[in-house]
């Protein structure tokens, strides 16, 4: 569904990705782990076209999207809940979700809101609350819900559990499984390597802009290099 072929990405003179090749197949949960500054966010944002890859190719459903605008890429069926959530703090929960379904017609919008409130009962209870006053976990659920409102086929999640309490982290991973079971393919960037690899069908390890390991989630959890560098074992 998503393929990166020898992708290089630069910020001016800084090279953040150095020939990354990887893929996400339909129906999978794929996790990308790596330490701070490895290039995880850059990889995810390169898929979204901002920044653009300086060389290599990004393919979505076989179509070359390397030079497409972010807007065009999103319209093909891709959505992202970015790092730091980026919800609209002054708008209510309901308004944030409506923004996510901006292009949908009214009938579809109502149906999707109902679906989101079923997936995230907490958002239903808080529909009228200003998003900026919600807890970190609630805001993360809102960011995921807003991304799902565009009915994506592929959902990108950048560090969805960052800064959250263990109980909330467990809820977020349960939700990620449910989303996949509902037919949405998930590509996940996480520093919480243990939980993220447990939920993943496959995973990649990124170090200084390069993929250094690729395997099933299960095998990566058992890999000595991963255990020492990312699991603290
Ligand atoms: P973290 O887990 O800390 O978010 P990351 O793995 O997501 O890290 P990136 O944010 O992708 O890493 O950063 C990769 C490299 O690119 C880093 O060296 C970073 O300093 C650099 N970088 C990221 N964004 C920019 C930018 N806008 N301008 C210049 N350099 C950047």
UniProtKB/TrEMBL annotation:
Residues of the ABC transporter domain: 2-233
**Keyword set for this entry?**
Amino-acid transport, ATP-binding, Cell membrane, Membrane, Nucleotide-binding, Transport
- Has the keyword Cell membrane been applied to this entry? yes
Q: Identify one Pfam family in the record.
A: ABC_tran
* SUPFAM superfamilies linked: P-loop containing nucleoside triphosphate hydrolases
List the GO molecular function terms. ATP binding
Does the record's keyword annotation contain Transport?
yes
Q: Which domain of life is it from?
A: Bacteria
Q: Which CDD domains match?
A: ABC_TM1139_LivF_branched
Q: In which family does this protein belong, per the annotation? A: Belongs to the ABC transporter superfamily.
Name by which UniProt lists this protein = ABC transporter ATP-binding protein
